[in-house]
Amino acid sequence: MSTPLTARGTRTKTKLIEAAETVFARYGYTDASVVRITEEAGVGQGTFYLYFASKLEIFEELVEDLNRRVRRAMSEASGAASNRIESERAGFRAFFEFTAEHPALYRVVREAEFVSPKSLRLHYSRIVDGYIEGLKEAQLLGEVGDIDPTVAAWALMGIGEMIGMRWVLWGDSADAGNDADPTASGTSRVPDDVLDHMITFIRRALAVPESSNGGVEK
Length: 218
Fold this sequence. Notes:
Elements (H helix, E strand, L loop, with lengths): L6 H25 L2 H8 L3 H7 L3 H24 L5 H18 L2 H12 L1 H24 L8 H21 L22 H15 L12
Helix pairs in contact: 1-2, 1-4, 1-6, 4-5, 4-6, 4-7, 5-8, 5-9, 6-7, 7-8
Organism: Rhodoglobus aureus
Keywords: DNA-binding
Protein name: HTH tetR-type domain-containing protein
């Protein structure tokens, strides 16, 4: 992978990654091709190879790019929250909004399991690492109970991913099928009441338990 030396080169590389996002989402890894990516980007094949050695290399770069952008969106949103639960709400809302704008995130990450397992692990590990640190800090502040931050981080990420799949990717329109229909489709948003129920569930899971005399256990 080549690092652009000019602003024009940086723009061209960005255009190729954006095109790859569209092509991999539309065709899947197997049916995607360098030709389709360059046509989508509006550049020649020779230009592609100035920046990437292969289809696999741009796929792995795309996974990193999507990961970087979704983590930034979640971090910026949750950073202004006044406590951990509000941070959860803001972070998840940002994740759902990013997914609605970039539905390729789901397909690309899932294909990474077979195409580039190291990219899959990197994607989830980077998200979880930041999550763990946030939960540890919240525990020190007394906002989160005595729960293993690593287990909690993976569990919370799973919740967000499944809720996003159901309401953002599958949508909630008339043609979305029933609540458990895996063939439903349509990019939408997570309704406020769904987010409210989700956060209530998370609040209870992370809550500091009350002692028998009604106070908070130390």
